[in-house]
Structures are given as structure tokens and as C-alpha cells.
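Retro notes, item 3 of 5
We never archived the inputs for the zinc ion complex last cycle. Fixing that now. Sequence and ligand:
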Amino acid sequence: MTRIAVGGFHHETNSFVAPLTDYAYFMSHRDRPPLVRGAEVTRWLSETSFALSGFLDAVRPGVEIVPLLWASGGAGGTVTADAFERIAGELVGRLSEAVPVDGVYLDLHGAMVSEPFEDGEGELLRRVRATVGPRVPIAVSLDYHANVTPEMVEHADSIVAYRTYPHVDRAETGAFAAQALALLLERGRPVGRALRKLPFLIPLNDQCTLVEPSRSVVARSVVAEGAIVNLSYLAGFPPSDLYWCGPAVVAHAFDQESADRAADALAREIALREAEFAVPMVSPEEGVREAMALARSASRPVGARGRAGQSGLRRDGGHHGRPRLRASCSGAKPEGLSLEARSGGGALHRQAAFFELAALAPQEEGSRGWHTRLMRHEQRSWP
Ligand SMILES: [Zn+2]
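Structure as it came back at the time:
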């Protein structure tokens, strides 16, 4: 029977936030499961919107899943040496007890900076590779905001990423990882791999996949087609201050020429569209007026939320002296919606924030709880 070890270790690190992210934070149960291990992993992560859940749903019958450990620290300051070593150490320790395995799948973020290793995922994958040896395929799914490094591309045999921002396709991404891993189990580790870093950073507010140019860039993603295992685009996470920060195109293929050709073509297209990533901003007041107008013409119940400086969130949910944008929804119907924009604490200038207006789709058969379909994605700046 085919044995696949699965695990996850997520953190989206903002290196400019002073408080560190410690082990206790990974252990806490917030809007995501706490650190879970062994059989708890599948119990907590099944039937959720996380990538691991989509992976578990998509694996072929007859595969034995060996759950290792899954932990998420959300977004915040640099991961402490203690947290990194305890979590990576336990994940790899459990893997070393589980070997031999036929394959490994890891549900990762890709923008983790830790005190001892600025490329958290690269170091984790190096240890996982050292544990399973040179023959076992390792498939990885990453967040759209990953800062991909050469070590990650070298040690993983497939890298797929969310194709949406805001992220509404995490589980689907896990299913793509399962498809890629099935191909690798059949054909072996791919010899071709290519990483192309774009020579610019893309601000978070200019990465939305509902609009151009990101929309057509993510549409070029490929999984298991011909010689290609994956062709993936990752927009990068600028607040992670590491050498390899920035957008990337990654290709894994069964020959080097196919990997190079696919990666070069997509990277060239993105580079040519650099100027298009800069999206004009409007004031919060103007944004609320637009959102209200959208709500009036909406055909479905409308919900709204605002968030400012998400990646700078403190552990207590507050912001680091940033202006705030608050939106409240008073009613499930468009006509009952009221929105309020308020800036507070704010001596900072031109601080961008998201403003999202979402139509909540009715519960569909087999859907994973309530589902957000964004009608519009707006950007704001404080004068
Ligand atoms: Zn993300």
C-alpha cells in the first residue's frame, strides 16, 4: 500500500512587526486549529477550507495517510528560534519514525522568516529531504504570498499555490498537490526545475486576482500537463524582509528544457506588465460610497468587511499605530447594509487598506460552510 506522510507548518512573517511569534501562539486555537499532531491532524483538518483538507479528499483510494503535525501561526512577527525548532523538530521527528514512506505532502505558507533561518520553509524542506532520502517525492502547496527560494524549489518536487487573492481556493490547491504527487509517484522525481524571480516587489494591495494583471497571470498556472508537473505563480509577501523576497514563477518538469521554457515564458509576460500592477487608490469615504452603491444593485445578500494593515496585526488583533478602517454590516439584505469608515490612531500617511464587499452565496450542497465570493475589491489610502 502507498504510504504518504502529510503535515503543515504555516506562518506569514512580517519582519517589521516588533513582537515575535512564539510557540504558545502556534499552540493557541484561534480562527484556525491549534497545533495538532498524529491522528488529531486529520480529525481537525478534514472538512475544512485548508489545503490539507483538499489534499485528503483528493488522494486515491488505497493510499495510507500518515499524519505528522500541522500548525499555523497566522500572520505576525518573526518566528522565534524556540518555536521553529520545536515545530520543525517534531514534524521531522515524526517523519523519521514513519519512514519508509512513498511520498510526502506538506501544506505550507512559504513566507516564514524565523530567528535562526530567514527562509523557514527552505530549511524545513532541507530537513524533510534529508529524512526521506533522494528518491521519495515531496509535494508542497503554498500560499499565493509565498517568497519562493532556490532551496524550496530544490528540495520540493512540486510546488502549487493558491490562485486567488483573497484566498478562496485553498482546498482546491491541496487537490492540485494531490494530483501532482500522484504523477510523481507514477513517474518518479522530476529532473527539471526552474525558479524565476521578478526584479520588483508587488505591494499587497496590487496583488488581487480579481483584476488584471494578476487575474490572467494566475490563469496561466498548470498542474500535470505533458512533461510539466507544475507551473506556478507566487506574488510574494513584501513585509518578509529576506533576500529572496518577491514574486516568483516556479516550474517542475520531467526534463529541464520544459521547466525552463515554461518558467521563462510566464516570467517574461509578467515582467512586461510590471506597470499594470500599480492600481490607483481612493479615500476611505469615497470607497464606502462606492461600496454602498454596489450594495444597492446587488442581487444577493451582502456582507462587508474592512481590514487595515492586516499583515501588521498585533497578537491581540490591534494595529501598530496604523489608521483603522472599520466596516460594519447591519443586515443581510443590501438595503439594510450600513457601512462606516473611521480612521483612528493615525498619524501615518498613505496607509493602504483593503475594503472588500462580499456577496455571501447561499449554502450550496457540499460546500464548506459559508463561502465568500467577492464582487469587488477596493483599495484605500489615508491622506
Ligand atoms: Zn496569503
